[in-house]
Amino acid sequence: MAWFYLLIAGALEVVWAFSMKQSQGFTRLVPSAVTLVAMTASFGLLAVAMRSLPLGTAYTIWTGIGAVGAFAVGVLFLGEQLSAMRVLAAVLIVAGLVLMKVSASE
């Protein structure tokens, strides 16, 4: 169950990063509220996952999901640059996440 909570926490990190961008520096009410709610839920689920997962593993997976997810959302919905180097960087992050997950099983 801890891994499920961690995945949801990571997805919520993507939500709050996107909504923070949409809030235009917390000057728009609805995106600002979404940011705060998603951020609180993300941190809360991360804390629950950390009850049984190692700190390094949980935090790395959480931030990795957020980083790669925010990159994907930026490209897909915000028109951010898509280049071979940026894709390679995202692939390397995902490879690191897989290695972190595999090493946590030992």
UniProtKB/TrEMBL annotation:
Membrane-spanning intervals of the chain: 33-50, 57-78, 84-104
Keywords from the named record: Cell membrane, Membrane, Transmembrane, Transmembrane helix, Transport
Keyword Thylakoid applies: no
Top-level taxonomic group: Bacteria
Molecular function per GO: transmembrane transporter activity
Listed GO biological process terms: xenobiotic detoxification by transmembrane export across the plasma membrane
Membrane topology: Multi-pass membrane protein
Compartment(s): Cell membrane
Entry GO CC: plasma membrane
One Pfam short name: Multi_Drug_Res
InterPro entries cross-referenced by the UniProt entry: EmrE-like, Small_drug/metabolite_transptr, Small_multidrug_res
UniProt similarity note: Belongs to the drug/metabolite transporter (DMT) superfamily. Small multidrug resistance (SMR) (TC 2.A.7.1) family. Gdx/SugE subfamily.
Name of the protein in question: Guanidinium exporter
Organismal lineage: Bacteria, Pseudomonadati, Pseudomonadota, Betaproteobacteria, Burkholderiales
